[in-house]
Amino acid sequence: MKRGLYVDQEKCIGCGLCVEIAPKVFTLNDEGVCEIIDPTGDEESKIQETINECPTECIGWEDK
Ligand code: SF4
Fold this sequence. Notes:
Bound molecules: iron/sulfur cluster
Number of strands: 4
Radius of gyration: 11 Å
Distance between the termini: 7 Å
Structural class: alpha+beta
Helix content: 10-25%
Number of helices: 2
């Protein structure tokens, strides 16, 4: 089963931590909310770190 990366933009507070950890995967859009630019842009371990570190726990994997 494939896993897809998601960001719950309703919960994102725009702290920028995920962008710092995995800048090729995440960016902050014009509203200052996290957006996924490339779910495979950085190593999976870095993505996992963003999931663990995001203060509002709004990043995660979902089954596709
Ligand atoms: Fe938003 Fe979480 Fe990224 Fe912070 S770490 S910008 S709250 S998705």
